[in-house]
């Protein structure tokens, strides 16, 4: 294997000021966490980029596959190295570019950066030497100085020569954990995992909360939500899922509130429960997958009535998004196929035939006042189950059959 390390470019992190080192440290920790299964990793973090040493082909394959999913990484490049000998450098460059030989006509250039100024050839001389060797051997290459399809980058450092050609785009954004913690209301549908993904991209660490209403919702529906929570961990951090026993509360709303306002009142109870969990875990906000006008409970009037139960910031990253755009992101991040599994969640049961799209807050408060919901809310919060993803793999006991 010719590659010795992977170069990680920071992207947006590069614009940070005095606290830049804190963001870089967070990214390094997230990379270590994401690749705990192939630990240890040798990581060298510098001000403008990071290097991950490659120990074998197996680790290289895993890193190249999963690093682009880690938020805070703008792009990655596998890097090869050799001694400071021109013939050896030319041979290495040929090896690196071999993958491009059969890809049709491509534009090409050589970039040189000389940290070691004692190297006998200056930048332009080294570019000419390498170009004169490579172009006759790759007839599909045509020189283009600005924005070529392939750029062979050569770095002349103090210890050796380093080369790279491939640039793989990363997820961008900010390292998870650099912008606090929020609580995601994870329903099991298409929208809420996408909302969680977008918040993670801005550096937010997520807990998730799910409202489970057996026997009206099945274990299959809960398992779907667990799979979605696990999917979100591939972007660089674990996710705690708080499963709320919601049947008692949901039935109480159904009995106390007129059918056409029950949806609004149910969402208000969810928000009250979520806010108590948020307070317990020290999260700074609540995230939902709501998109303005998508359903009856997501009109501006409905959202106003729901928001009334808390002063906590409610973050709605999809508020202006079209459904087709949300579906596209869901497919891109790998949650769509899980989300469309046909298992009902609590939001789809007891659904009124003609829900109020413009509920009056004073009327909702009036009907809720006849039932003592606070005790039910406290009990739901107290009796919740917490699951951590990804789940740790339990090593199989090879002597178990002998006991």
Automatic annotation (TrEMBL):
<dbReference type="InterPro" id="IPR050102">
    <property type="entry name" value="tRNA_sulfurtransferase_ThiI"/>
</dbReference>
<comment type="function">
    <text>Catalyzes the ATP-dependent transfer of a sulfur to tRNA to produce 4-thiouridine in position 8 of tRNAs, which functions as a near-UV photosensor. Also catalyzes the transfer of sulfur to the sulfur carrier protein ThiS, forming ThiS-thiocarboxylate. This is a step in the synthesis of thiazole, in the thiamine biosynthesis pathway. The sulfur is donated as persulfide by IscS.</text>
</comment>
<protein>
    <recommendedName>
        <fullName>Probable tRNA sulfurtransferase</fullName>
        <ecNumber>2.8.1.4</ecNumber>
    </recommendedName>
</protein>
<keyword id="KW-0067">ATP-binding</keyword>
<dbReference type="InterPro" id="IPR014729">
    <property type="entry name" value="Rossmann-like_a/b/a_fold"/>
</dbReference>
<comment type="similarity">
    <text>Belongs to the ThiI family.</text>
</comment>
<dbReference type="Pfam" id="PF02926">
    <property type="entry name" value="THUMP"/>
</dbReference>
<keyword id="KW-0784">Thiamine biosynthesis</keyword>
<dbReference type="InterPro" id="IPR054173">
    <property type="entry name" value="ThiI_fer"/>
</dbReference>
<feature type="binding site">
    <location>
        <position position="267"/>
    </location>
    <ligand>
        <name>ATP</name>
    </ligand>
</feature>
<dbReference type="InterPro" id="IPR049961">
    <property type="entry name" value="ThiI_N"/>
</dbReference>
<keyword id="KW-0963">Cytoplasm</keyword>
<dbReference type="Pfam" id="PF02568">
    <property type="entry name" value="ThiI"/>
</dbReference>
<dbReference type="Pfam" id="PF22025">
    <property type="entry name" value="ThiI_fer"/>
</dbReference>
<feature type="binding site">
    <location>
        <position position="298"/>
    </location>
    <ligand>
        <name>ATP</name>
    </ligand>
</feature>
<feature type="binding site">
    <location>
        <begin position="210"/>
        <end position="211"/>
    </location>
    <ligand>
        <name>ATP</name>
    </ligand>
</feature>
<dbReference type="InterPro" id="IPR020536">
    <property type="entry name" value="ThiI_AANH"/>
</dbReference>
<keyword id="KW-0694">RNA-binding</keyword>
<comment type="pathway">
    <text>Cofactor biosynthesis; thiamine diphosphate biosynthesis.</text>
</comment>
<keyword id="KW-0808">Transferase</keyword>
<dbReference type="InterPro" id="IPR049962">
    <property type="entry name" value="THUMP_ThiI"/>
</dbReference>
<dbReference type="InterPro" id="IPR004114">
    <property type="entry name" value="THUMP_dom"/>
</dbReference>
<feature type="binding site">
    <location>
        <position position="289"/>
    </location>
    <ligand>
        <name>ATP</name>
    </ligand>
</feature>
<feature type="domain" description="THUMP">
    <location>
        <begin position="61"/>
        <end position="167"/>
    </location>
</feature>
<feature type="binding site">
    <location>
        <begin position="185"/>
        <end position="186"/>
    </location>
    <ligand>
        <name>ATP</name>
    </ligand>
</feature>
<dbReference type="InterPro" id="IPR003720">
    <property type="entry name" value="tRNA_STrfase"/>
</dbReference>
<keyword id="KW-0547">Nucleotide-binding</keyword>
<keyword id="KW-0820">tRNA-binding</keyword>
């Amino acid at each position: 294997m010719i590659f010795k390390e992977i170069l990680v470019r920071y992207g947006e992190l590069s614009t940070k000021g005095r606290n830049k080192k804190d963001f870089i440290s967070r990214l390094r920790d997230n990379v270590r966490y994401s690749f705990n299964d192939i630990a240890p990793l040798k990581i060298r973090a510098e001000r403008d980029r990071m290097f991950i040493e490659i120990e074998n082909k197996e680790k290289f394959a895993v890193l190249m596959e999963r690093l682009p999913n880690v938020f805070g990484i703008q792009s990655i490049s596998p890097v090869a190295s050799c001694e400071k000998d021109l013939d050896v450098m030319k041979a290495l460059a040929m090896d690196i570019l071999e993958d491009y030989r059969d890809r049709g006509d491509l534009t090409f250039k050589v970039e040189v950066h000389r940290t070691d100024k004692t190297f006998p050839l200056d930048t332009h001389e080294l570019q000419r030497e390498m170009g004169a060797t490579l172009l006759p051997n790759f007839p599909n290459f045509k020189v283009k100085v600005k924005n070529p399809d392939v750029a062979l980058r050569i770095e002349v450092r103090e210890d050796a020569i380093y080369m790279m050609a491939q640039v793989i785009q990363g997820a961008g954004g900010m390292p998870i954990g650099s912008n606090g913690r929020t609580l995601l209301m994870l329903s099991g549908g298409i929208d809420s995992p996408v909302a969680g993904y977008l918040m993670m991209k801005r550096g937010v660490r997520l807990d998730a909360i799910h409202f489970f209403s057996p026997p009206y919702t099945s274990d299959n529906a809960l398992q779907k939500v667990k799979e979605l929570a696990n999917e979100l961990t591939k972007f660089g951090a674990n996710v705690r899922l708080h499963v709320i026993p919601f049947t008692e509360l949901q039935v109480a709303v159904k009995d106390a509130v007129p059918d056409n306002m029950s949806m609004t009142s149910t969402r208000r109870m969810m928000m009250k429960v979520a806010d108590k969990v948020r307070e317990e875990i020290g999260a700074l906000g609540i995230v939902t997958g709501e998109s303005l006008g998508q359903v009856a409970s997501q009109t501006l009037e409905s959202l106003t009535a729901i928001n009334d139960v808390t002063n906590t910031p409610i973050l709605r990253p999809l508020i202006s998004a079209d459904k087709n755009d949300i579906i596209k992101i869901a497919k891109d991040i790998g949650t769509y196929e899980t989300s469309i599994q046909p298992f009902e969640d609590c939001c789809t049961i007891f659904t009124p035939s003609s829900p109020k799209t413009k509920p009056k807050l004073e009327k909702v408060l009036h009907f809720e006042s006849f039932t003592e919901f606070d005790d039910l809310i406290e009990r739901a919060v107290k009796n919740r189950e917490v699951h951590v993803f990804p789940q740790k793999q339990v090593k199989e006991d090879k002597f178990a059959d002998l006991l």
